[in-house]
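Q: What would this chain look like folded?
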Amino acid sequence: MEKMIDHIRLAYNALEKVFVKKIYSDNAITEDDSNLSARITLGVLEKNVYLEYILSQIWKQEPNERVKIILKIGAYMLLFIDKIPDFAVVNETVNFVKNKYKDSLKSNNTQEKKSFNQSTYKFTNFILNSICRKEYKLPKEEDSNYLSITYSKPQWFIDRMIKEFGEGNTLKVLKDNVSVYDYEHIRINSRKDKDEIVHKLEESKSIIRKTLVGGYVVKKNDEIKKLFNKGDITYQSPSSMIAVQGFNPDSGLQILDLCSAPGGKSVYLGELCPDSKILACDISEDRLRKVEQYAKRMNVSNIETKVMDATQFNDKLVNKYDYILVDAPCTCFGTFVKQPDVFIQHDESDIDKLSETQTKILLNAFKYLKANGTIIYSTCTLFKKENDDVIKTALKSNSNFMLEKIDVDINNKGIIRLLPNKEWEGFFVAKIVKKGEN
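A: My prediction, written as structure tokens:
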């Protein structure tokens, strides 16, 4: 049985990757991490704004990032994990800092040596005991930062959400998205016996409910892992599935996925269009390796991969494709429930930078599309600059392209905007068709 200090160590290692090395939490949390350490890691990321607000009231001088990570771990456990006594949290967190100090003496890592010294564990003890004594204040409902701190989101995010979607929608997004770590949304491999797999899910009591897109919200358990590893099911949000279903997939087509990694949409298209050829492109071999591994697990063989920078025009692809998926690189702010570190990896300034990239990619896709072909443009982000504005700019450039209604069970005129809600990620999907001669 692991000791508490081991859970703290695992959480620290994962959080150091996120905060210091800017690695996404998906890659920072490993299968070796315990359930408790994973909960602490995701909890600290989810409550990061809230924790920093409290801690900044107690420390007189802001510590370096590594020490802040340890303080956030201790603060999160004190404030949000009721089953562990406060004294145990403080003692074990301080002991972990003492161990880090001893390790730093033997280490050649200058950053480690700067971060941990004899005063660090005294400082940690003081800060965490101050939290135990509740030596901090939270904002009142009438304060301008109330929503930001209460729901632990950056102030700029709250302000922009209210500006673009109104206070009512913003409150709904914030209140309806309490993280649920034990649930996932899955879809069944389209080439497998659906009834047989549903029966296995029902036997294991995994299914919570069926969703609008034909997937299922399920409880994580050993049967889910087993079916996933066999390629019978895969994890995919209903929002992501709609982007693929928007094509009304057919067979015998040439399909291009310009930004394909990690491969969920390419593989889903491959399942739905078994007699079509799919070219899945991305910017590096490492990213495409993920697509290939995904396709192999799901037993999809009609996908070819190609290293290509989608922002650079490729004259060999002109007028070649019936379907083109532009799942554009974006700020990913619609995924904050499952990926709370998105606010650490991106800030508001990235919205403008990425909108330029997205427009370049979409304009290139226009040139690769056959007459009467279809483009689906999608992002997993929220704001108009990366979504509506990109579509408007692209459509203004060429009168042969126009929006067309997306044939799914959501009312639309060629654009679907999904705000985060439980299993639904925040998503934007637009369907564009090309008329006329090539």
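The longest helix spans residues 86-106.
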